[in-house]
Automatic annotation (TrEMBL):
<feature type="region of interest" description="Disordered">
    <location>
        <begin position="121"/>
        <end position="163"/>
    </location>
</feature>
<keyword id="KW-0217">Developmental protein</keyword>
<protein>
    <submittedName>
        <fullName>Transcription factor RAX3</fullName>
    </submittedName>
</protein>
<keyword id="KW-0805">Transcription regulation</keyword>
<keyword id="KW-0804">Transcription</keyword>
<feature type="domain" description="HTH myb-type">
    <location>
        <begin position="63"/>
        <end position="117"/>
    </location>
</feature>
<keyword id="KW-0539">Nucleus</keyword>
<keyword id="KW-0010">Activator</keyword>
<dbReference type="InterPro" id="IPR017930">
    <property type="entry name" value="Myb_dom"/>
</dbReference>
<keyword id="KW-0238">DNA-binding</keyword>
<dbReference type="InterPro" id="IPR001005">
    <property type="entry name" value="SANT/Myb"/>
</dbReference>
<dbReference type="GO" id="GO:0005634">
    <property type="term" value="C:nucleus"/>
</dbReference>
<dbReference type="InterPro" id="IPR009057">
    <property type="entry name" value="Homeodomain-like_sf"/>
</dbReference>
<feature type="domain" description="Myb-like">
    <location>
        <begin position="9"/>
        <end position="62"/>
    </location>
</feature>
<keyword id="KW-0677">Repeat</keyword>
<dbReference type="Pfam" id="PF00249">
    <property type="entry name" value="Myb_DNA-binding"/>
</dbReference>
<dbReference type="GO" id="GO:0003677">
    <property type="term" value="F:DNA binding"/>
</dbReference>
Length: 303
DNA sequence: AAAGGAACCAACCGCGACTAT
DNA sequence: TATAGTCGCGGTTGGTTCCTT
């Protein structure tokens, strides 16, 4: 049985919004609010539109303080940094850029910023496309079982299904938490825990706020795992023993994401080998030699 | 000047998550 | 606990504009 449609498709208008519709929607919401029910809103406002369409129009265009126009260098940098850290979580990235919408950022990334990172000027488009065609011979095959990083044994990486059985996350040898624990920490922590664990050569990054409470494990042991600030030292010590540098960044601040710059994001874009599967992807870049230790050898992101 | 292709961006679609009953 | 309704997100589409030949 299919899903029930959210509205009567035959009786709703589609396509671009007219100025009259915009005014109707804006005035209605400013006067009455959304009422917490977008589905009922168009009828109440006298609009022949789907509720979802109204929501989108309001959020992306009509609501106050929306910023249109050119993105600044700072905004570029933030987008790149966060993309390197969390992938295409546009709503989370948008939350860090006041006035920008997820749709805006997504479009900007797909049409401009990605090319900017690759250094493609309009006049270079064709030759760049040709060379890319030659370079990228095979499309990325979604593989959720990534090879272990160079610092761990190649034979002992673990893979572990999450509670939803949709994603396999490859973990590290001797990792103190199971991969599902990691997954749950990241995905159950709400908006503050946008920072998925990132293994960046010898650097392991963990997202989450200092006041993050705990998150449950799906391994059946129902152990609660806290990764608040008091655990940072424990992690650091553990990874130090393993010869790894562990780094936990905190909250929604940008200090950690800004660890990434254009050079860090380039591999994601140019190799085109990230798996955009529910935000999980892994990247390998065996060529990068800049920035000292961090970029020597294999660079992998675990999401 | 015209045609074709590329770029841009608003809007749509489908699905998972969440909530109310 | 199960189910239906709704929300919100990310990927994709399609119309318009811009650029190149």
């Amino acid at each position: 049985m299919g899903r029930a449609p959210c509205c009567d498709k035959a009786n709703v208008k589609k396509g671009p919004w007219s100025p009259e519709e915009d005014i109707k929607l804006k005035e209605f919401i400013e006067k009455y609010g959304t009422g917490g029910n977008w589905i009922a809103l168009p009828q109440r406002a006298g609009l022949k539109r789907c509720g979802k369409s109204c929501r989108l129009r309001w959020l992306n265009y009509l609501r106050p303080n929306i910023k249109h126009g050119e993105f600044s260098d700072d905004e570029d940098r933030i987008i790149c940094s966060l993309f390197a850290t969390i992938g295409s979580r546009w709503s989370i990235i948008a939350a860090q850029l006041p006035g920008r919408t997820d749709n805006d950022i997504k479009n900007y990334w797909n049409t401009k910023l990605k090319k900017k990172l690759l250094g493609i000027s309009p006049s270079q488009r064709k030759s760049q496309q040709q060379s890319q065609q030659q370079t990228i011979q095979q499309p990325f095959q979604p593989s959720l079982e990534a090879a272990p990083p160079s610092s761990s044994s190649s034979s002992s990486h673990e893979s572990c299904h999450t509670a939803s059985s949709k994603t396999t996350l490859t973990g590290l040898e001797g990792f103190p938490l199971s991969s599902s624990d990691v997954f749950n920490c990241v995905h159950q922590g709400g908006h503050e825990s946008y920072g998925a664990p990132v293994h960046y050569n010898s650097l392991l990054m963990f997202g989450g706020s200092d006041h993050q409470q705990s998150c449950s494990s799906s391994d059946g042991n129902s152990n609660q795992i806290s990764y608040g600030s008091r655990d940072i030292e424990a992690y650091n010590e553990y990874y130090s023993q393993m010869g790894l540098e562990a780094y936990l960044f905190s909250g929604v601040g940008l200090e950690a994401p800004l660890e990434f710059g254009f050079e860090d994001v380039k591999p994601l874009v140019f190799n085109n080998n990230y798996n955009n599967n529910n935000g999980f992807f892994n990247i390998e870049d065996t060529n990068s030699t800049e920035r000292g230790n961090r970029n020597q050898g294999r660079v992998m992101y675990y999401y």
